[in-house]
Design a protein that fits this description.
The protein has about 60 residues and is largely without helices or strands. The protein has one helix and three strands; from the N terminus they run αβββ.
């Protein structure tokens, strides 16, 4: 048996993730039954990341 690409090609493909029904991304975990992107299966609300809506309070300096 040769090593390298031919051996790697015979491996089983990933089976844990599939497309999400709600967001359409390939991040729905079959065993956990939760989408990592939109949290479908865990919450009725869409998942929001706190780093995307960060509030920055800065004083404006006038010249």
């Amino acid at each position: 048996m040769t090593k390298g690409t031919p051996s790697k090609g015979k491996r089983a493909k990933g089976t844990s993730h599939m497309r999400c029904r709600r967001c359409g991304k390939h991040s729905y975990h079959r065993r956990k039954k939760v989408c990592a992107s939109c949290s479908y299966g865990k919450s009725p609300k869409l998942k929001k990341q706190s780093f995307t809506a960060k509030k920055v309070n800065r004083k404006r300096v006038r010249d």
